[in-house]
Design a protein that fits this description.
- This is Outer membrane protein beta-barrel domain-containing protein.
- With 241 residues, this protein is mainly β.
- The chain has 2 domains: 164 residues, no CATH class; 57 residues, no CATH class.
- The chain has 2 helices and 12 strands.
- A 6-stranded antiparallel barrel has the order 6-8-9-10-11-12.
- Strand 6 and strand 7 form a beta hairpin.
- The longest helix is centred in the first third of the chain and has 19 residues.
Length: 241
């Protein structure tokens, strides 16, 4: 049991380090905002325009970035929409958001199983993978960064949050201790898993917290003490697109 907690602490520390990278300049940084529909949450230095856009369009605005200027076109059925301009400022930031449906593939490097039938906390680090489906909310912070008194450039920082469900497959160690003395020789069993998760996307990597259950396949499934019992784990993936 102490060994399991030590391994869990190491994995938790690694995750904290990954989350700490979210504060670094490279993580979550975009070179250019994609043209598209966004929700206008805040326009620093011109909140009256932000309020006007929210009241008139329920946040639905088509946004285009032209260097340090945003072109904001509220949704309309008219062929010639009204377009507002907003220049990014160094002492204020603009905040935009978007909502979407998210599909990702993750690994599950850690599963922590609560104590059961005299077996202490178990830390499962065998192979596991999952397909994640859920809702996603992205935030975009934009401002003008001063490089020198005569030189500026736009800066965009993006983060994504999500929640949803996942399903996948993996393996687990099957021993006599976890099969009520029915397993015989120790082996790696094949499991199918499913559950719910929350996701943090820093654009370079994705991490999440998951709650799920496993379904062991094979003759020992009827004796496996963790069959369809909840576990807690971590999701991890890389953004390759």
């Amino acid at each position: 049991m102490p060994t399991a907690f030590i391994r869990l602490a190491i994995c938790a520390g690694a995750c904290v380090a990954l989350l700490g990278l979210g504060g670094c300049a490279a993580v979550g940084r975009l070179a250019q905002l994609d043209d598209g529909w966004y929700h206008v949450e805040h326009l620093g230095g011109n909140d009256s325009l932000a309020t006007q856009l929210r009241q008139a369009t329920r946040y639905r605005v088509y946004v285009q970035q032209r260097t340090d200027t945003l072109l904001l076109s509220p949704y309309t059925d008219q062929p010639q929409p009204t377009t507002y301009t907003y220049e990014l400022q160094s002492n204020h930031h603009a905040l935009l958001s978007s909502r979407s449906f998210d599909v990702d593939v993750f690994t599950l490097p850690v599963k922590a199983r609560p104590p059961r039938e005299g077996v202490p906390v178990q830390l499962n680090t065998t192979f596991s993978a999952a397909v994640y489906l859920g809702r996603r909310l992205d935030y975009y912070y934009l401002h003008k960064h001063t490089l020198a008194p005569w030189q500026h450039e736009p800066r965009i920082r993006a983060t994504g949050l999500g929640y949803g469900v996942f399903f996948g497959m993996g393996s687990t160690n099957v021993t006599n201790d976890v099969t009520r003395q029915h397993a015989g020789p120790e082996y790696e069993g094949f499991v199918l898993h499913a559950g719910m998760a929350t996701i943090y996307d820093a654009r370079i990597f994705n991490v999440g917290l998951a709650v799920g259950f496993d379904n062991l396949l094979g003759p020992d499934r009827a004796y496996w003490i963790y069959q369809r019992r909840p576990w807690f784990g971590l999701l991890f993936g890389l953004d390759l697109n």
